[in-house]
Automatic annotation (TrEMBL):
Gene3D superfamilies: alpha/beta hydrolase (3.40.50.1820). It comes from Rhypophila decipiens. InterPro entries: AB_hydrolase_fold, Esterase-like, Mycobacterial_A85_antigen. This is Endo-1,4-beta-xylanase Z. GO terms for molecular function: acyltransferase activity, transferring groups other than amino-acyl groups. Pfam families: Esterase. Keywords: Signal. PANTHER family: DIACYLGLYCEROL ACYLTRANSFERASE_MYCOLYLTRANSFERASE AG85A, ENTEROCHELIN ESTERASE-RELATED.
């Protein structure tokens, strides 16, 4: 997905929306973002869908969102970062400036605008129209409107409910002695390094979305793909979490840019990435449509997802794309409930993958034991990263998993994202470090990382 730095959206007069990222060379961040949305009948427009409040390392509670310092970006200072709030509720929290209220700047045209200084990072957003209580405003009620001129990366409409853009780092205003909050590794790589990303439908008997017996995934093909006759590429499966789907990693996390940059900087060989979806797979399951108040649909049990992927997804990918077919060049990773799925793959599809990225895992005991590893020594010969955010609500669960690995004598690399809650800036950081420290680096069964940390 090509996103212009200077202007996103259409320049044409008919454009009904746009997002412009401007380098200002003045504080607080050195960049400003202008939102513009035309809707002559709206009475009120808010920007929702993922722009989070900011906080800092000295005013962030690891246990309570309510206790966090929550700053408007106008009050940004170097070292601030955003933390997710799990349930933005308006107008219940008047002191808390989220979602952002747009100005009706031209009543005749129905033009709504909003300008905010934002620091480096990816932001997702949607317009909330005549909406006073964000959780109740959906696409179906017409109160959640995706920017028509910046459509999200997705397969079918309804699969994503927010567009996204990325603001660059400006060291003059954002460099902090305490914390590196430079997310430029998720910006567009120079053209020759840009891979492609697309959605794919495949036959999966019993699937209920996007069509009966059809399921889907997204795939990243590195720039080099197809240029070297007969070459097979290492393959990373990368899962979303609860309430998401296979388009999330690209739409909300800019997976393709992170991969382009990992490859460009020589951290990994060109790699194919498949981001599957774990909902809507199983016969008789309840349909999950993003943002359609269906977030409460239960996450399917990981072992059933694994069995289904083994039967339909993995064979489809291997027979359709130029990917390698042995464990040493296959990896599975995933965030949150996708981390649970990754752990399940580690235990139950051990022979398929040599590398596992267990990101912000919502895992629970029982975990592998020393006896398990004695019985199945391969469990101790994998390249594993376990990562989570310092302010992540799965902190205890992730730490318990590490404690179990310690007890079982299983080696791993551990990254605690120092600005991280349970959100995309954390998961981007986890993927970035997984690529730098673990992916395709060899499986000694011990920590592989430290010597490889770039200095
Ligand atoms: C909203 O409009 C007011 C008055 O023109 C202006 O001062 C303010 O900066 C605008 N706010 C945003 C966030 O654009
Ligand atoms: C939100 O929706 C629920 C259920 O549809 C309803 O009970 C509740 O009153 C709504 N809340 C607001 C603030 O509109
Ligand atoms: C969302 O659910 C409603 C009813 O529950 C349905 O009418 C609508 O078509 C669904 N939207 C999508 C995008 O599937
Ligand atoms: C996948 O199938 C759905 C439903 O038939 C269709 O709307 C969509 O365009 C298809 N996507 C691709 C990439 O073929
Ligand atoms: C695994 O596949 C890669 C790429 O196809 C190949 O280079 C390597 O030799 C294979 N390893 C084994 C053990 O088969
Ligand atoms: C492994 O698979 C079995 C069923 O085949 C399941 O009961 C078990 O929970 C799975 N293990 C993990 C760690 O998910």
């Amino acid at each position: 997905m090509a996103v212009s730095l200077v202007l996103i959206g259409l320049l044409a007069l008919e454009a009904v929306a746009s997002v412009t990222i401007r380098k200002t060379d003045r504080g607080p961040t050195g960049y400003e973002v202008d939102f513009r949305y035309v809707n002559p009948t709206a009475k009120r427009v808010l920007i929702g869908g993922g722009i989070q409040p900011f906080t800092d390392q000295f005013h962030t509670s690891g246990t309570s969102f309510r206790a966090n310092g929550r700053y408007h970006p106008r009050d940004y200072q170097p070292g601030d970062f955003y933390v997710s709030n799990p349930s933005p509720q308006l107008p219940a929290e008047p002191a808390y400036i989220w979602p952002y209220e747009m100005n009706l700047t031209d009543a005749g045209k129905g033009e709504w605008t909003y300008t905010a200084p934002l620091p480096s990072g990816i932001y997702s957003f949607a317009y909330l129209v005549n909406c006073n209580y964000a959780p109740n405003c959906s696409i179906d009620t017409g109160q959640l409107v995706i920017d028509p001129d910046l459509p999200p990366f997705m397969n079918v409409p309804g699969d994503q409910v927010a567009s996204s853009f990325q603001v660059p780092f400006n060291p003059a205003f954002q460099a902090s002695p305490e914390l590196n909050t430079n997310f430029d590794y998720a910006l567009d790589a120079p053209k020759p390094w840009r891979g492609t990303v697309k959605t794919v439908n495949y036959t999966s008997p019993g699937s209920i979305h996007p069509a009966p017996d059809v399921h889907d995934f997204s795939i990243y093909l590195p720039a080099e793909y197809g240029a070297v006759a007969g070459k097979k590429y290492p393959l990373l499966y990368l899962s979303h979490g609860a309430g998401g789907n296979g388009a999330d990693w690209e739409n909300l996390g800019r997976m393709s840019h992170i991969m382009d940059n990992l490859i460009r900087l020589g951290h990994i060989a060109p790699t194919v990435v498949v981001t599957p979806s774990f909902y809507n797979l199983l016969p008789g399951s309840e349909k999950f449509i993003y943002g359609n108040k269906s977030q409460s649909i239960p996450v399917p049990p990981a072992y059933l997802v694994r069995e289904n992927f083994v039967d339909y997804l993995f064979p489809h990918v291997e027979s359709t794309f130029e990917v390698c077919s042995n464990a040493s060049c296959r990896a599975f990773a995933g965030l949150s409930m996708g981390g649970v799925l990754t752990y399940e793959m580690y235990v139950n599809a051990t022979a398929m993958f040599d590398y596992y990225g267990i990101f912000s895992p919502a895992t629970n005991a029982p975990y592998v034991t020393r006896e398990d590893v004695a019985r199945r020594p391969e469990l101790g010969k994998k390249g594993i990263m376990v990562a989570w955010g310092l302010y992540d609500f799965v902190f205890n669960q992730a730490r318990d998993l590490l404690t179990a690995f310690d007890g079982a004598g299983v080696g791993y690399v551990n990254r605690v994202t120092p600005f991280g809650s349970h959100y995309w800036n954390t998961w981007q950081d986890e993927l970035w470090w997984f690529g730098q420290l673990v992916l395709w680096k060899g499986v000694t069964g011990r920590e592989t990382g430290r010597a490889k940390v770039p200095r």
